[in-house]
Amino acid sequence: MTSFTLDARNLISPLPVVRTQEKVEQLDSGDELEILCTDPRALHDIPAWCRIHGHQVVETSERRGDIVVRLRVHKLD
Length: 77
What we know:
Blueprint: E1 3-8, H1 15-24, E2 32-37, H2 42-53, E3 56-63, E4 66-72
Parallel strand pairs: 1-2
Antiparallel strand pairs: 2-4, 3-4
């Protein structure tokens, strides 16, 4: 497992989800991705995208004014 960070700050919906999807396509199953956002809709949009695509939301939080969503990638081989 490898951890990655995606900076999606100052992007408005749906761009944080689009950038998340683009990054997840580059990752392997079991990798973790931490997404930093400023758009509060990301707290709903990214977990909803994860449910649809089978990825696991590990944590959602706020840190120094940023919204943080951490997910674990699950891909079918």
